[in-house]
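user: can you give me the structure for this one chain? tokens are fine.
assistant: on it. calling the predictor now.
[tool input]
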Amino acid sequence: MDTDQLVERIRIARDNALEAEKQERQRLADADTTDRQQAASVRLATRQAVREALDDVLDETSPEPEKAQPSDG
């Protein structure tokens, strides 16, 4: 595997972490109990840490995900 392929795989992993972060933000917004809020908050912090670490490896800055709004349902 050459350097370009490695960098591309890290970018893909970072982008996947960003998508997972967005999902956790939505779960946090939708949480209906304190326990669910706390669990989603921990998962969100973990996703953010992973994304930021991958940004550091790439020496890039990924866009911050938008704040989620509670779902109607």
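assistant: here you go. The chain has one domain: 3-58. The chain has a mean pLDDT of 90.
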